[in-house]
Write a structure and sequence with these properties.
The chain is mainly α. Helix content is 66%, strand content 0%. The chain contains 10 helices and no strands. It is globular, with a radius of gyration of 23 Å. The N and C termini lie far apart (79 Å).
Length: 261
């Protein structure tokens, strides 16, 4: 016998979804096969919805994807900020495994010889997620200040910044994975190439992302000028962040840096 009321909130069902809570009307008994094949694989990796779709959109059409999301086309996207946090966790895992292999391969741990460098490493390790995630407000604020013609508010610029930063995280993790070629005999050169290529790709990706979002509002010359200011502001913010971290680690005693052999 078919259910005529929603099993979640008991509202009368009309159509495929509950008009009150949004749950599907065709819910059925949970089995391992359905959970694994539909709820897990379909929900996460479906090409038309979920994490894989969001990652694809962030890499291929970040600016347009952000504008689609802002305009209300949201059901197909996985939460961008949750996704970034998951990728930060994945990056920490990859880098930790890389450090372990480095220590085994070279019989020496990764680290700096001076005590200040070690303190900075410990600080970055402790607050890595906060530091990385703080780039999103930088992107959002810079975009809000410079690209005003589309009349996006600050929150909408956060969405654009989130999707752009998601793409940057994906590129970064792919480059981190290529670093493992360092532990091979004949392909270690790939690591050097990937470290240089990552910087170039990230820079081009940022420019492409904002161009695809705002090219209809600005001439190429005007966009180039604003993008130059955007990147300049971003560089200044990174320098400010670096100085702040260095100051916290050294108790703002920049002249008293000790070194140990």
């Amino acid at each position: 016998m078919a259910h005529h009321n929603c099993l979640n909130c008991d509202t009368q069902l009309i159509g495929k979804f509950c008009s009150n809570c949004g749950q599907k009307s065709d819910t059925h008994r949970i089995t391992f096969k359905h959970f694994f094949m539909h709820d897990l694989l379909h929900g996460v990796w479906h090409f038309e919805r979920g994490m894989l779709f969001t990652a694809k959109e962030a890499l291929i059409r970040p600016g347009k994807a952000a504008l689609d999301y802002i305009s209300g086309k949201r059901i197909r996207y996985y939460n961008v900020f949750y996704f970034i946090l998951l990728l930060i966790g994945l990056q920490l895992f990859v880098n930790h495994y890389y450090d372990q292999l480095f220590e085994v391969y070279y019989s020496s741990p990764i680290g700096k010889n001076d005590s200040t460098g070690q303190k900075i490493d410990l600080f970055l390790e402790k607050y890595y997620k906060i530091i990385i995630f703080s780039f999103v407000p930088f992107f959002a604020l810079n975009g809000y200040l410079l690209f005003k013609k589309r009349k996006l508010n600050l929150s909408e610029h956060f969405i654009l910044a989130g999707i752009v930063f998601l793409g940057i995280m994906i590129i970064t993790i792919l480059a981190d994975l290529l670093n493992f070629f360092e532990f091979t005999k004949y392909f270690d050169f790939i690591t050097d190439i990937s470290n240089i290529a990552r910087l170039v790709f990230i820079l081009l990706y940022i420019i492409y992302s904002y161009y695809s979002a705002f090219n209809e509002n600005y001439s190429k010359l005007k966009f180039s000028y604003k993008m130059f200011l955007f990147l300049t502001l971003l560089l200044l913010e990174l320098i400010f962040m670096g100085i702040t971290i260095f100051g916290i680690v050294t108790n703002w005693k920049f002249g008293s840096i000790s070194y140990h052999a």
